[in-house]
Amino acid sequence: MISSRSLRLIASALFSLALAAVPIRAAGGLGGGGQKDQKEKIDRMAAQLEELKTELTLLQRQVQGMQDTLNKTTGELSTLITQISDNVSAIRRAQSAVSTSSSDATAQLSTMGERVTATNQRMERLSEQFAQLKKLIEDIPKQPTLAQITPGNAEQLFAAAYSDYSRGNYDLALSEFRQYVETYPSSELADNAQYWIGEILYAQKKYPEAVAEFERVPVVGPKGDKVAIALYKRGLVLAEMGRKGEAIAQFQALIKAYPKSPEAGLAAQQLQQFPPELVNPPQPEPETRKKRKP
Question: Is the per-residue pLDDT at 140 higher than 70?
């Protein structure tokens, strides 16, 4: 069984690796093509990471219901993987033996022919095993559609909404996420649903609406796990709209409120793309008092 703790560790590790892989260079402004490409990469990476985190959350919530199926398939998958590993090892040994075999040409060709035949047979078995593996994976329960949702089942509604979002059915997913927030405002996933509302509007290039919806995430779930990323995405949208001052203020507020979060690091990198005089405007010097004449 895949434990919730293991899933969290996987998500944390993937997130850390992804952040380490994003090269960011300090620059003077947002106008350059290189900075724009870097910003787009960051946007895509953040969206992919959020999708991964949501998928892991859904998986955690479905583990209990899938326990019997997973227990049944674990042994079969383990056997197939072991067989595949053995066959791959045998193929590698055959290839290594061919390259280092005796210099006797006649014996070598004969041996090579036998090994090629054995390799072909193993490849055929591998194909069959991969087909079985694919069948087992396809048999794992899928996320429900809207028509299959049991009334009052919050998890099914969220899963259907996210499934529609993943397939690009934005209007339907938007309606489902809104329904989730309205129906289950105290749910642990309410802030997640609110976050994906903002993501959908951003994907539809409805930037003012996206800014407003991202801003609502801390209201819906003040202690939720989507607050920091929602504020970061709000800053990105403001910057894309040309509202640089508001974007800078948003990034700075995020760093102050969540200094140890991965999003704080991303926000700091974004601030490097703005002119220094906008990020740290010069403070007016205090007016000296005029000396009175004696």
Answer: no
Model pTM score = 0.55
What's the CATH number of domain 4-64+144-279, 3.40.250.10, 1.10.3720.10, 1.25.40.10, 3.40.50.300?
A: 1.25.40.10
Q: Tokens for 116? A: 């090629």
Instruction: Name every residue whose Cβ is closer than 8 Å to that of residue 30 and which is 6 or more positions away in sequence.
Output: 36, 39, 239, 244, 273, 274
Q: How far apart are CA 206 and CA 173, in angstroms?
A: 15
What DSSP line would sit under 211-235, residue for residue?
A: HHHHHHHHHH-TTSTTHHHHHHHHH
Euclidean distance between CA atoms 275 and 38, whole angstroms: 16
What confidence tens digit (pLDDT) does each residue in 213-239 have?
Answer: 999 999 999 999 999 999 999 999 999
Spatial contact of 255 and 268, defined as CB atoms under 8 Å apart: yes
Identity at 73, one-letter amino acid code: T
Across residues 125-149, what is the average pLDDT? 57
